Amino acid sequence: MARRFSAALRTMRTADGTPPTGVAEVAAAAVNAIPGVLGAVICVHGDRDAPNSRLAVSVSDAQALLVEQLEYTAGAGPGLYAAHTGCVVRAGVDLERQWPAFSDTVFARTDVRAVYAAPLSDGHQFLHAALVLYFRDAPSIDALDETELRDVTAAVADAVVDATPAIASLADTVPADTPSSDPLRERLAVNVAVGMVMATLNVVASDALAVLRGFAWSHQTVLEPVAADMISGELPVTSVA
Predict the structure, then answer these.
(1) What is the dotted CATH code of the domain comprising 2-168?
(2) How confident is the model at residue 202, as a pLDDT?
(3) Per the count of CB atoms within 10 A, which of 13, 45, 85, 203 is most buried?
(4) pLDDT(37) > 60
């Protein structure tokens, strides 16, 4: 499985035909290498200075992106749990019991019914990041060899480590106050909206994010369009409280 992952990553090409040098293609390579996977994301979380932030730095497809956005909006789920605790999550038949709000909306809007999430480590310490794999059913996870999954996770971690400088500069290279269809821009716009809520309501970042999450969830949407509307002025900050 790890060899298939490495081979898939080597055969991929960027838009100009050159081999990838960052982490953007890694999620798709994981999907190609692991049997039964519907989609994958690699999420990098903020450190102690920004514990509530998360960027999906590699996404295999639109459905995987939606599941990641739903989890971040819910504020709880297997990917968040793996990244924060350092524990591997195999959530199949118990996904709904462990994270009911997340699973209910995911089941309603996607084909995903099971999730495997693994924290990423450089061999010495956790990277505040996780590989999250989405499956159609629990038996698809049960059929996979745990040792092979660990090998793929280690290879993904190596790719993240190699791309660390590029990941660290994302906030500088992608304008956070310019919402667009680009997932990274949209997520960085959420950080801007958090700042706007903090300033208007005089609350800390975690409380501001909770306010935005509650508004998005109650309107059956995700954080990104809420942030875009707030930054554009279409959604007054005071209306989300």
Answers:
(1) 3.30.450.80
(2) 95
(3) 45
(4) yes
